[in-house]
Structure formats: C-alpha cells, structure tokens
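User: I'm curious whether this sequence folds into something compact or stays loose and floppy. Could you predict its structure so I can see for myself?
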Amino acid sequence: MMIVMELLQNGKFRRNDEPIELIDEAIAILRALKDFQTQFLMNQTQGQQFLSNYPFISSGFDFMISMFFPHLTKESQEAKTKALVDMFVGNVETILDSDTVPSIKEVFVKLDSVIRKDWKGMMEAALEYITKESPLGLLHGDFKLDNFFLCDDGKVIIIDWQSVSLGNPLFDAANFVTQSLSRELSINSYESIIIPIYSNLFEATVLRKCFETALWMQLLSVSLFANSPMFKNASANQNSKKEIGALYDLIMRGAEFTPLLLCKLLS
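Assistant: Here's the prediction. I'll summarize afterward.
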C-alpha cells in the first residue's frame, strides 16, 4: 500500500465531470491502455484456450450476461443473445417514445434514421461479430476518467481492474472516447485518436469493424442506464442529480456521444 501511495503522489486523478479537452492528453491515456493490451491480443481459438487456462476471467459477452441476466449464465449463447437484443430494443423504444431527456432522444432519433430503424438487426450483427469473428484482447471493463492517474512525468497508471474480461479489444477505447472526452474530441475520435493509435495492430477494415461493434456494446449499456429511474429522476430533478454526482455527467456524455459517433461511422 505504501508503494502505491508513493507512486500516486506526483500527479492527479481526473474527475468524471471534467472531460478531457486536449487531444494529446487523450492519446497519451489511450496509448497506455493499448501498450498493455498489445501483450494479450489473440484470435477466437486462442481466446477459448486462454479462458480455459484462466477460469477466473470471463469473456466480455459472458460478463455482460452476468451483469444484466445472471439467471441465464448457463443457458445457450442463442438464448443469451436474444435476451440482450430484446432488452436493447425495448430500451431504445422507450427512449424514442419518451421526452424525459430530450437531448438523448434527439441523438437516438438521428441514429434511428441512419440505420433505417433496424435496431434489432444491428445489435444482432454486432453480437455475432464479437462472439465469433472479432480479435480478442484483455479488457479493463470500466475505463473512464477516475480510473487512471496522470503522473507529472507523463506516465499513466491504470487502476481498478476488478471488471477484467476477454473481448473486443476496442471496447475499452469506445468506452473512453464516448464518456471521458469533450464533445468535439469524442465525435472526431475515430479519425483523430483511434486510427493513429491502433492502425499498427489491425488492418483497416478490422479496426473499423471492431470499433463499430464496440460502440454498439457501449450503446447497449448506456440505453440501460438512460432508462433507469435513477437517471430519469436526476434529469428532471437537480437534487437527485447532485446525489448521483459526477457519474451523471459521465452517463450523459455516453448516451449522447455514442449515437453521434455511430451516425458518423455509418453515414
């Protein structure tokens, strides 16, 4: 513990309500994650062997199931996929039919037009890719502002690894660029951040597909949070918003920026 405290003396943590506005800072943070992940890149076959060797680590897909549908952990992959898709489509329909958070509804309506209302098909295709085709990497699982420490010498220390899993290697990056960056940086992040950092690891079409499907997984999560009573109450009530604190701003950015990034990528 003393060693950790000494390491964290010269630098700072970021707050969840203070998104990053400098591209050099964003690139430095994500490059630190990528440098770690490079040691654990593998294909689907290697991934199955890895999970067999390390049973305390789950696949990213099964980690999502354990969060949303723990009673389905022993069911078939088809049953798990159907449950995730049905939940997602239901959440999207609620967002599109509600005026509780107008700014979120607006960006979902925009994406609804781009994908021609095929939410079910797009999510099914994304889940198919991540479970059968996507390259795999070790994931942090909660890569956001308050889970890394910026040292004064430029080093980045990543903390809070209790949600580690094996999955789409761009999942953490998608989580980071949609929740932890300013609006302008986030919406332009594929060209200005993702490609410069990851293009030496993946061929262009694979990189684009990994990032797109990672965004769909991010959208699945934010659609759930955006529909939660806690978030809706906070959107309508300043006192409730204060109770949630900086997490509200983080969720709000993710709920707005993820659909906009997908619109840009798919247009």
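Summary: DSSP finds 14 helices and six strands in the chain. The longest strand covers residues 148-151.
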